[in-house]
Structures are given as C-alpha cells and as structure tokens.
Amino acid sequence: MEVYGSQTISKRPLREQRYLHFELLPSDEKLIEQLPPEQQKVLRSEGSYAKRAQEIGVAIGTIRSRLHRAREALSRLRASSEVPHNEVGSH
User: Fold this and answer.
1) Residue 84's pLDDT is what?
2) What angle, 0 to 180 degrees and rounded to 10, lies between the N-to-C axes of helices 37-44 and 60-81?
3) 3 state DSSP class of 9
4) Closest-CA residue to 42 (of 13, 19, 15, 71)
5) Residue 38 burial (CB count, 10 A)
6) Domain ranges (residues) in the chain
7) What is the DSSP letter of 36?
8) Measured distance CA(75)–CA(78) in Å, rounded
9) DSSP letter at 85?
10) 40 and 33 in contact (C-beta within 8 Å)?
11) Percent with pLDDT over 90 in the chain
12) Which residue has the higher pLDDT, 23 or 1?
C-alpha cells in the first residue's frame, strides 16, 4: 500500500492488471494446444482473477497458479519452436 496525501492506494490491482495482461500471439494457438486442458482454459479466459475463477469454477489461487504454470510452459514452447539464428539457411 502507498499513501498519497490522505488517500491510501493499493498496488495490488495494478500488479494484477499487469500480470493478467499476457499477449497471446496468433502463432501461439498450436503451442497452447500442447498444454494441459486446464492451462489452455485459463489462458483463453479473460478478465480479472475473480472473473476467471467464477467462469472456470475454481478458487482465485488456482487461477493464479494455473496462469503462472501456463505462461511458463508457453514461454518454453515458444523458445523451443524458434529456429536458432545461426542455423537459418545452413544445410
């Protein structure tokens, strides 16, 4: 929490907003299909943690956990699907 004048402002909503903003690229769809179904669902859902939790029918902590695992897995898949620059055009 931060105090500005007589107002106390929580950093949590801003932090949650930044964390929830994870750009999915059109090329990610095939990679997402490789993830477990619960990770696919949470990546494709939209809104706050609370909205996603209600939509999917799980606790907010479960949403946070699944989003974290799904993003980590997607990042690894993105990295493994890229062709290293030094191998482009060499045969």
Assistant:
1) 53
2) 100
3) strand
4) 71
5) 15
6) 2-81
7) -
8) 5
9) G
10) yes
11) 49
12) 23
pTM (2 d.p.): 0.67
CATH class of 2-81: mainly alpha
Residue 17's pLDDT is 54
Nearest CA to 78 among 30, 21, 20, 41? 30
- List phi, psi (to 5°) of 15: -60, -45
DSSP letter for 71, please.
H
User: Tens digits of per-residue pLDDT, 16-60?
Assistant: 555 556 678 888 899 999 999 999 999 999 888 999 999 999 999
Mention every residue, 6+ apart, whose C-beta is less than 8 A from residue 84: none
